[in-house]
Every structure is written in structure tokens, then in C-alpha cells.
Amino acid sequence: MTGGTTAEPSGLSFRQLLESGGFPLGIEIVSTRGIPSNPDEAPPVILARELLSHPRVGWISITDNPGGNPMLPADWIAQFLPNHRDRIVIHVTCKDANRAGLESLAWRLAAEGLRNVLALTGDYPTTGFGGKPQGVFDLDSVGLIALLKAMNEGLIVTTRPGRRDALSPTRFYIGCAVSPFKRYERELVPQYFKLVRKIATGAEWVITQLGYDMRKYHEVKLFLQARGISGVPVIGNVYLLTKTVARLFHERQLPGCVVTDELWELCQKYASGPDRGKRFFAELAAKQLAVLRGLGFAAGYLGGIHKLESLEEVLRHLDSFAPDDWRQFLKEIRFSFPDEFFFFEHDPETGLSEPDKINREYLESLKKPRRSRYVTWGYRLSRLVHRIAFTRGKGLWNLAQKLYQRWAGKPQPPASARLLYGLEKFSKYMMYGCQDCGDCSLPDCAYVCPKRWCSKCSRNGPCGGSMDGQCELRDKECLWAIVYERLKAYGESEEMLAGPPVLYNAELAHTSSWANTYLNRDHHRTAEKRDLNQDTLGGANTHGQ
């Protein structure tokens, strides 16, 4: 074998593989819809068995309803692979279940011995019985990571009034994803900031979104290094294209997956040949894996494999490469947009980004923020009001807090409290489209209401589905791109996703968010009231006005 992935010794778990210092290979398995006539011989089950017995495959990773299509759950496939559960990664997304359902699923996975979990927000649901379903997104990926971490530490629950006990700790190996293949600064930089937040919350390994620009892959590792984050394995995600899939990616039919015009022209050219592009697509995937290995990624991950022969062809190409060929491949596989933003300066000699040189224009823009059309008079007014009335311990805070505390002690809120609540709802609806959630994240989101303006109600940063600054549903601008622009104009973008996870408490719905803030009931409550194992997961005892 000249330059292929190392065949890992049998018996190593997924965690051991990532920590081995080699370059193991994982393969994606997609579930199916409907009941197979012979479940034990269902195509994804057969493929999973073949892959796990292959000497070059370290693990398999089973998706959770990719593209928002309902399918059999990932652990349904895993049940037919009882001897390989420590080599199986289960994708868990937030689109189809609330936090109670996600916790229930997590307990089931733990009971089944499935400990490797990739925590994802998930694509917005696209199809379902009777019409298009509504996404749940009670938690996002950051909230899901917080839940899994709390379970690993022994989840604190109320077993009966006045008694709180710790449940037996789980042993989840928690992963997260990052999408570096974003065109604009306002999309890309928040992706990196959210990655830092995920790791701070409890993610132990990282996988990239798939893409076709090796410099962008490399920037993920460089960004973590620049932030002083070490010891977190990063997996490079590669997808074996076909002409059909390339067209879907080019037309942006799958959220976060990009094939540029330049790459699409190549795909069409080779797909018109006698082998329909089979050799070109396999060689492209092999070259990407070679580059990822050369760049020191912890592992490679290959999607788009539907039969063992496809994997074998990719490996044949990989084995044919010389040890240093990857350096040339890196320069070849640079399918970015002409105006695409990179966080680091380009090194023309290597084709990489320079590790110690952050984008000069970006750094200059931090010192002298440019004017932004997103900084409206309404935003300026909102900042002023917050500074005067909602900054803890300053301005009108103490006076307002005493007033709400006096009202909270009464059996029924007085007319003055009801009048102020009416004023709150009217003013916030007119200015922000407020949905009266009672646990307000306007200060977290630069005064763009996530319940109104984010399709996934994300309060912890952007999902990976945005396209050219637009929401993946293509009906509005990405909320977090606007947040970034607004905060950067005030020199605050670097801290936009700092702090603990924001977890909405639905018990506060249709109560006064002003009261809940002043009475220390919402997610802004002070540290002495915060319990990450309980209250921030939605267990606060609240009674808003």
C-alpha cells in the first residue's frame, strides 16, 4: 500500500480510533423508509455488516432522517450489529423531538450500548404524512450537547417534592459538526464561534460538513489552534459525488452542501463520458482523503457509499498515490466562489491558509467597523433602552426589580402590572415581531427575535444550512448573519456566542419577559440561580405574570 489509509487493528472503539494517531476511515450509512420484508437483510443492514468487516473501515456512522425525510431510526440498524456497537456513531438531530423526546432517545441509546453520538440541529423537515411537517427544534445542537453532557455527569432530577437525585451517569462520546463552506464573512465567522461554544459546552470531537475546497477544511484546524483549543479530534467529511447528487448540491437542494459552477462544469464533462464520471468522482474523493490525511486530520469520513464496490474503487485510487501527491491535490481541489471569505491569509506557494496570519482585511475591520445597513435606528434604540432599564444593577434595574417583586407577592397581578405587560407585548411585537415567549433572547440575538425570524428558533448560533447569507428555507436572511453584522459594528462580534448555552423554558410562554428578567426566572438568571443539570434544561419552577 503506497499511500492509503492505515488498516486499523480490529477491536478498537471509535474513540480509540480517533485517538490512535492514524487516519482511520468512517463510512456513512443512510437508513430507509418503510418496513423491509426481511429486516435482517435490509440493504442498509447488509452494507453496514460488509463495511464493519472490511479491514480498511474503522467505523460506520448512521444518519438521522437526512434532508428532513422520515426514515427508520438509526438505532434500528444498529440492533442488527450487536458486536460492533462501540464502532457505530449515531446521528441525533433536534428537528423531530422536543427535549423530553431527545432525553428519552438518549437513555435508549445508552441502554443499547450506543455511546458515540453526533449532536446536530438537523435539516428542516421537508416531507411527511398529510403535508409538510413543522420542525420542533426545542433544543438546537448546543442544547443537545448540554443535555448529553449533563447525562454523562449524572443528570439531576426531582424524584419527589423537595428531593433531587442524580441518575446513573452515561458515557456518551459527544461529537459536533461545523460548516466552514460559507461564502461570506457574516456566515463563516459565526460558524467558527459556534464551534467554540459547542466544545466549551461538552463536544469532544468534531466533523466538518462536506465540501470541495481543501483550504476551507484546513481552516477549521487553524481556527481551533488560534483559539488555543487542542486535543479535540477533527474528522474531514468527503462525499462521493454522482452527476445527480452534484446537480442537487449545485442547485442548493440539500442544506449546506455546495458545488460551485466550476466544479459543476467538470462533473457534467466527465459524466458525459463512457463511465458516466465514475472514475472522476472516485478519484476526486480519494484525493480529498489524501489531502485530509496529509493535513493531519484525525480521520476521514466518506458519504455517498451505497455498495462496497464504490468504496473499493476509492481505495484503489487512494493506494495509487505517492506520499506527497496530496500537496498537489490540495491546489487542485479549490472550488470556492470568487468572492469567498477566508479567515486566514492565503499562502500561494502551498495553496493553504497561513497559520499565523489572520485575514488582514478582517482584522482591520474589527478595529474600524464599517457602516452596516443592519444597524437601524430601531437597533440603536433597543441598545439604549437595554442599557438604561435592563442592565443588571445599573440604571433603572434596581427600581424596576423592586416594583416587579412587589407585584409578584400579590395573589393576582394588579392593573398596573397587567397594563405594563400589555405595553410590553404591543411594543415588542411592533418592533421585533415578538412571539410572547416569556424567556426573551432579544439581547442575545442583537434584537432579532429568534422565535419570529429563525426557522429553527436557534438561540445559540447559526445552523449549517444557510446559503449565501439566506436561511436554508430561502425565505429570509439568516438571523445570525444579521446578528453578526450588528454586533461587529459595535466591536462586540468576538463575544457574540460567549457564555453558557441559551435554553428556552417553555413554562414561561405568554408571561411577561420583563417580569421574568427582573425576578431572575429566565435564562439570564444569575449564577446562584443557575443549575446546568436541571434548570437550564427546562426544570425551573416558575410562575410568571
Please give a handful of descriptors for the protein shown.
single chain; 545 residues; alpha/beta; two-stranded antiparallel ribbon; 19 helices; 12 strands; globular; disordered N terminus
Number of strands: 12
What oligomerization state is this entry in? single chain
Overall pLDDT metric: 92
Catalogue the unreliable spans.
1-9, 532-545
State the share of residues found in helices, binned by percent.
Answer: 25-40%
Tally of alpha and pi helices: 19
Q: Rough shape?
A: globular
β content, as a range?
Answer: 5-15%
- Characterize the largest beta sheet: strand count, sense, and whether it forms a barrel: 8 strands, parallel, barrel
Main β-sheet, spatial strand arrangement: 1-2-3-4-7-8-9-10
Termini separation comes to 70 Å
> Rg from C-alpha positions?
25 Å
Describe what this molecule looks like in 3D:
This protein has 545 residues and is of the alpha/beta class. It is globular, with a radius of gyration of 25 Å. It has 19 helices and twelve strands. β7, α6 and β8 (205-208) form a beta-alpha-beta unit. The model is unreliable at 1-9 and 532-545 (pLDDT under 50).
